Amino acid sequence: NKIVIAVANQKGGVGKTTTAINLGASLALAEQRVLLIDLDPQGNLTSGIGMKGQAAAGGTAYEALLSDTPDAASAILPTGVDHLFLLPADHHLTGAEIELVTADAREHRLERLLAPLRDQFDCIFIDAPPSLGLLTLNALVAADAVLIPLNGEYFALEGIAELLSTIDRVRAALNPRLAIEGVLLTMYDERTNLGQQVGANIREHFGDRVYTTVIPRNIRLGEAPSHGLPAILYDARSRGAEAYVALAHEFLGRRRTA
Amino acid sequence: NKIVIAVANQKGGVGKTTTAINLGASLALAEQRVLLIDLDPQGNLTSGIGMKGQAAAGGTAYEALLSDTPDAASAILPTGVDHLFLLPADHHLTGAEIELVTADAREHRLERLLAPLRDQFDCIFIDAPPSLGLLTLNALVAADAVLIPLNGEYFALEGIAELLSTIDRVRAALNPRLAIEGVLLTMYDERTNLGQQVGANIREHFGDRVYTTVIPRNIRLGEAPSHGLPAILYDARSRGAEAYVALAHEFLGRRRTA
Ligand SMILES: Nc1ncnc2c1ncn2[C@@H]1O[C@H](COP(=O)(O)OP(=O)(O)OP(=O)(O)O)[C@@H](O)[C@H]1O
Ligand SMILES: Nc1ncnc2c1ncn2[C@@H]1O[C@H](COP(=O)(O)OP(=O)(O)OP(=O)(O)O)[C@@H](O)[C@H]1O
Ligand SMILES: [Mg+2]
Ligand SMILES: [Mg+2]
């Protein structure tokens, strides 16, 4: 019942980082031991939980991925939230996409790094960058399952086909156990025609994989990272914070019946 | 007075593609001869103007970048808009980020490709992916100037430092003429605290480089690409279409006094 989840979608700005932070924090507050891995050179997750510029002795995700003697435990930091831990990223990770091209076992670096850690955490969430390049491939190869956030917009809907095709190829060639944990509608406004069409399309395609919980557009979710806090610590009563708490319950319910 | 502009920002979902399409289309309707280059493996620009799956004899941006005998002219397509042309992208471009790593003059491929085309267009806009990898570097090396769209959110603001640092490095090592054409506030809501803070921060940093025109959040801008149309053809009276027409005027005004 321990799980590694890649939070992935090559479309930009669909709420991957916001989901990793807030689902992760809500699970930690429900006493789950959670590790967040920032795999995006932008380092949004790292700064969004107030850890910008911080790194443990083992360095950031960059050093951890490129080391030939990976020691993830030495790169993990506690956060301001009990039970919530972080493997941070910074801009050096931009270089990883190039340096990994010629590295040994280049799609398996993260999997190798996480192997000794899997037993120490109930949930590990990997925040992937907006691309289907080597960093995202590492996330998909290391993961048991993918959580796909998507906003109710046309470009996000269109990108799903390519994401699923990539997941299929990873399953066929690199990681046979890769499943789809769930699809999450984010920044979702069901009052608009486009929102309704995208929502209907997603539910038709993914059926019960789509979370019943939908994350509404809520200003607190955009403000919280500017304070280095998950929404539940920044404004617990906000609709955004409450939506991610509800998602955490739905997530755990799904895990327990998996 | 001909110009090549990289529409760039490594942050996802800040309106790069929406800006390339709608500023490009508005300029074309003002009788400027415009070429749009889709440099994003997601191919959002290509599908957003209704050209998904289409390619000329010379192929897509992928073939054009990886060919040793680049022939951009053979890869350019007319669009549904007079004076508006497209060099399309599809998912094969994902491979380019890897294949370019070991290619000759790997940051200069697009520059080389565009050299014979520059005289044929008043404006060339390159839609870059959400990363600071090789595709974006090719855009920055090929460009005379960068147009930076940014939404009024914390992560987008935070990413600007890294983007400017990359632009400085490109200027120092690869493209001495690279300038900042302008900064565009997109999906902007100045009624929110966060929006005001980000707007003030951006104006303080960039001064008169920030366009007076601000693109409001407008549902038509999200709907138009689902019909394969620029907003000005989908709903000319919408606030979104009108904002990009105003931007086109401001853009031309800036070009003429440059
Ligand atoms: N439900 C929401 N309501 C309001 N703002 C949101 C919501 N979810 C995310 N945001 C904001 O929208 C922007 C995009 O979200 P986020 O950065 O989490 O997406 P992402 O998919 O990780 O982006 P990228 O592709 O760049 O990694 C951020 O500024 C974030 O703070
Ligand atoms: N002003 C606006 N009002 C409403 N929706 C908008 C606006 N500008 C862009 N959008 C929508 O927001 C989403 C993100 O915009 P867009 O795809 O242009 O950003 P991008 O920076 O190119 O993203 P990526 O980083 O993935 O390339 C799209 O679904 C687009 O249709
Ligand atoms: Mg992110
Ligand atoms: Mg885009």
Rg from Cα of chain A: 17 Å
Number of helical elements of chain A:
11
Identify every distinct bound molecule in the structure, by name, code or SMILES: adenosine-5'-triphosphate, magnesium ion
Q: How many extended strands of chain A?
A: 7
Residue share in β-strands of chain A: 5-15%
Distance N terminus to C terminus of chain A? 9 Å
**Most residues in contact: chain pair:** A-B, 40 and 39 residues
Textual characterization of the structure:
- The structure is a homodimer of 258-residue chains.
- Chain A has 258 residues and is of the alpha/beta class.
- In chain A, 42% of the residues lie in helices and 14% in strands.
- Chain A has eleven helices and seven strands.
- Chain A has helices at 16-29, 44-48, 61-66, 93-99, 109-114, 134-142, 154-173, 193-206, 219-223, 231-234, 239-256, and strands spanning 3-7, 34-38, 77-78, 84-87, 123-127, 145-151, 179-186.
- Chain A has a seven-stranded mixed beta sheet with strand order 3-4-2-5-1-6-7, with helices on both faces.
- In chain A, helix 1 packs across helix 11 (239-256).
- Chains A and B meet through helix 2, helix 4, helix 7, helix 8 and helix 9 of A and helix 2, helix 4, helix 7, helix 8 and helix 9 of B.
- One adenosine-5'-triphosphate sits between chains A (12-18, 40, 44, 130, 186-187, 215, 217-218, 221-222, 225, 240) and B (11-13, 130, 153-155).
